[in-house]
Amino acid sequence: MDFAAPVTLENDFVRLEPLADTHAADLAAATAGLEDRWYTSVPSAAGVPAEIERRRGMNAEGSMNPFAIIRTDTGRAVGMTTYCDIDQPNRTVEIGYTWLSPEVHGTAVNPSAKRLLLAHAFETCGANRVQFCTHFHNRQSRAAIERLGAKLDGILRNHRVGADGALRDTVVYSILPHEWPAVRNGLDARLDRRR
Question: How far apart are CA 153 and CA 131, in angstroms?
Fold first, then answer.
């Protein structure tokens, strides 16, 4: 299966739906409290519709598959995530451009979403490699990626120019197919404690 193909994924905690304009109001509300995160890219509340359109455009080109992250207990969208940097011929993909409302930080939402995306990538799409990238200074994201069980591949220094013109060092992690069963077991154990 193609990483860019539309799909809805769901478990007890979250539903990942293809990103749509209908998610805009919830996502605009979800950005509250994220305005000071200089080390990550979160749209402003007013910028959410344009970000939805940008991500959907990249999906049309086949380079991204964007999702709204919906809490199953409330039915509200609380963030976005994507399959990005899609390399279908080599069956590699990145899970990234993820942001979540502060109200769900430290809950089952992020590990649940990652569990769904990783299972789909490895078990349905036959991924050879799933990558995660984050800003060197984004300690919260780095810790979350490491809790998943992803392995550190390295740091790409001066990798990107930020919106403010500052150079970003990007930390790269990955999970390979033979590592997925252990990562899956770890995620399942974490989520079982939240039931």
Answer: 9
Counting the structural domains of the chain, the total is 1
> What's the order of all strands across the beta sheet hosting 167-175?
9-10, 14-18, 64-71, 77-87, 92-100, 129-135, 167-175, 151-161
Q: Which residues, 6 or more positions from 167, have their beta carbon under 8 angstroms from its beta carbon? A: 158, 159, 160, 161
38-90 pLDDT, tens per residue? 566 788 899 999 999 999 999 999 999 999 999 999 999 999 999 999 999 99
* Distance of alpha carbon 63 from alpha carbon 177, whole angstroms: 22
Q: List phi, psi (to 5°) of 32.
A: -55, 130
pTM above 0.90, yes or no: yes
- What is the Cα–Cα distance from 39 to 84, expressed in whole angstroms? 19
Do 78 and 107 meet the contact criterion of CB atoms below 8 Å apart?
no
Residue 90 falls inside a structural domain: yes
Examine residue 3 and state whether it is found in any structural domain, yes or no. Answer: no
The H or E element that residue 175 is part of is strand 167-175
Q: Which domain holds residue 104?
A: 9-192
